[in-house]
Amino acid sequence: MKKFKKMVAQQVSPALDDFADFLAKLAPRKLLEYKASPKAQERLNFLLAKNKETTLSSTEQDEIAHFMLIEHLVRLAKARALQKLDLQKQ
Q1: Spatial distance between the Cα atoms of 8 and 77, rounded to a whole number of angstroms
Q2: In Å, what is the CA distance from 28 to each residue of 25, 41, 47, 88?
Q3: What is the 3-state secondary structure (H, E, C) of the chain?
Q4: Domain segments of the chain: what residues?
Q5: What is the pLDDT of residue 12?
Q6: Which of 12, 22, 31, 59 is 20 to 30 A (C-alpha) from 74?
Q7: How far, in Å, CA of 42 to CA of 65, rounded?
Q8: Do 78 and 31 contact (CB within 8 A), yes or no?
Q9: How far apart are CA 78 and CA 81, in angstroms?
Q10: How far apart are CA 73 and CA 67, in angstroms?
C-alpha cells in the first residue's frame, strides 16, 4: 500500500491534476453532488473492516488502492469545482 501511495504522489499526480481540472470544468455543481453509490461504499466499508481483522488478499488490497485513487481524484476535482464557482461569483 505504501508503494502505491508513493507512486500516486510522484508519478500520477500531474495526470490526476489535469483530469480533476477537466472534470471540474464540465459541470462544477453536478460534480459537487457526486458521492459513491451505496453499493461501492458498502464494499469499501467491508474491506476496511476486514483489513482491521486480518490480512487482505492482493486483489482486495488493489481494490482498496483503486478506491483511494478515485477518492483522491474526486477530492481534487471538487476543490477545483469550488474554485471555479467562487471565481464565477466575483
Answers
A1: 16
A2: 6, 23, 31, 11
A3: CHHHHHHHHHHHHHHHHHHHHHHHHHCHHHHHHCCCCHHHHHHHHHHHHHHHHCCCCHHHHHHHHHHHHHHHHHHHHHHHHHHHHHHHHC
A4: 13-89
A5: 58
A6: 59
A7: 16
A8: yes
A9: 5
A10: 10
Distance CA 71, CA 87 (A): 24
- Long-range Cβ pairs for the range 66-71 (8 Å, 24+): 67/40, 68/4, 68/5, 68/8, 69/8, 69/12, 69/16
> Would you tell me the crossing angle of helices 38-53 and 58-89 to the nearest 10 degrees?
130
Q: Shortest CA distance to 69 belongs to which of 6, 25, 22, 21?
A: 6
**Stretch 34-44: mean pLDDT, rounded?**
95
Of 90, 38, 41, which Cα lies nearest the Cα of 70?
41
Mean pLDDT confidence for 7-30: 77
CB atoms within 10 A of CB 22: 11
* Non-local CB neighbours of 50 within 8 Å, separated by 6+ positions: 56, 60
